[in-house]
Write a structure and sequence with these properties.
This protein is an alpha+beta fold and 386 residues long. The protein is 34% helix and 31% strand. The strands form 6 sheets. The chain has a 5-stranded mixed beta sheet with strand order 9-4-1-11-10. Strand 16 and strand 17 form a beta hairpin. Helix 8 runs antiparallel to helix 9 and helix 10 packs across helix 11.
């Protein structure tokens, strides 16, 4: 069974909100403190408070770290993490969050990531937030992280560089390519730290993945917003599994086409696969007035849904695309390369069969003067023996 955490940033996400949510869901505060101590830095304290946000009971993570205006570069923080006494997964996750922040800030300011001064993000309280989130995930035994679309506000925010548009440029950069939603709230709902947690750690951004739901938690923001719970929710669960594979929630996009040529249909399938679709296929159908047509279907991860939908519109000229959430159980597989009389052939190995890549089989068969069936049989037998 795989332990999963699904964040639901209904009112955005910040480092302390994510940490509060994980503590609310059962992460051990003592374990989290102990792991943060492994950074080898002093002058901080972490506590919690029970609060209410729009009638929801939530946990507020209280970080006390009066570090003043001490700034750190990404290179400084990377050195601290490299020498810290931390579990490997905590160190790796924390480093990936800070690296995402550094790359985003560098892009915004036109400098190299190693030269980024994190300002308030590099201050001790933010280091405690980020390492604390990773420590809380470790305390809960979380192996996979997913998220719903991230909520952002409007207006302006005040940061170390002055007044900035809301969401801040670094937040927009971090959320590039990810599903988001905006609400008419003049407040920084999602901070760079919160956006970096999702950008760096979330495997998918979309609906809750298929899992057996366990504990849930709410991490409170600083303010109580009228008409909206200022919380980040997290749901902890176990990924639903079968004897052979794990189920995952995917998106199936589909559109009916009765006015495009076979060349366009074939090109669209190939282009969508090249663009990252997990699968793409055509089904013959009859539409109104008995018109022959095709349904173009695309299977993709939630993170790729918006991008591939746009590709379908561009490639086919269709005026509408349907989206359905589906569950797929995928068996473990690996690719093995074998040699058949001087020709390298890739063989996909699953628990119950081996399948040679046909394009390579056909090329080898032509060169060797043998049938594709013979070449495939030899390649698959050699891959099975390996």
């Amino acid at each position: 069974m795989t332990r999963v955490a699904w964040f639901h940033p209904i009112s955005g996400i910040a480092g302390d909100m994510a940490l509060g949510a994980l503590l609310d869901a059962g992460a051990d505060l003592g374990e989290v403190r102990s792991m943060i101590e492994g950074l080898g830095v002093e002058g901080w304290a972490l506590d919690t408070a029970r609060v209410e946000r729009s009638s929801l009971a939530a946990t507020r993570a209280l970080v006390d770290a009066p570090e003043g205006h001490h700034h750190r570069r990404w290179s400084d923080i990377r050195t601290i993490l490299e020498h810290a006494s931390l579990p490997d997964r905590v160190r790796t996750r924390a480093a990936s969050i800070f690296e995402a922040l550094a790359v985003a800030e560098a892009a915004v300011h036109g400098i190299e990531p190693d030269e980024v001064h994190f300002h308030e993000v590099g201050a001790l309280d933010a280091m405690v937030d980020i390492v604390g989130v990773c420590a809380a995930l470790e305390s809960l035994g979380v192996e996979e992280i997913h998220s719903a679309p991230v909520t952002v506000g409007v207006g302006a925010v005040t940061a170390a560089h002055g007044v900035l548009p809301n969401p801040a440029p670094a937040v927009v950069r971090l959320l590039e390519g990810l599903p988001t939603r905006g609400v008419d709230v003049d407040l920084e709902l999602t901070t760079p730290t919160g956006a970096a947690i999702i950008a760096a750690l979330a495997e998918t951004v979309g609906p809750m993945p298929a899992m057996v739901v366990g504990p849930t938690g709410f991490g409170a923001g600083t303010k109580d917003l009228p008409g909206r719970p200022n919380v980040t929710q997290v749901v902890i669960g176990e990924r639903a599994t079968t004897d052979d594979g794990a189920a995952e929630t995917l998106i199936e996009l589909a559109t009916n086409l009765d006015d495009v040529t076979g060349e366009v249909l074939g090109h669209s399938v190939d282009a969508l696969l090249d663009a990252g679709a997990l699968d793409a296929w055509l089904t013959q159908i009859l539409m109104k007035k008995g018109r022959p047509a095709h349904t173009l279907s695309v299977l993709c991860r939630p993170l790729d849904q918006e991008r591939l939908r746009a590709e379908i519109f561009r490639l086919t000229g269709t005026l509408g695309v349907r989206a359905t959430s589906v569950e797929r159980t995928a068996l473990a597989r690996q690719m093995v390369t074998v040699d058949v009389e001087g020709h390298r052939i890739d063989v996909k190995m699953g628990p119950h069969r081996a399948k040679a890549e046909f394009d390579q089989v056909a090329a080898a068969a032509r060169a060797l003067g043998r049938s594709p069936q013979d070449v495939a049989r030899i390649a698959e037998a050699r891959a099975t023996r390996n």
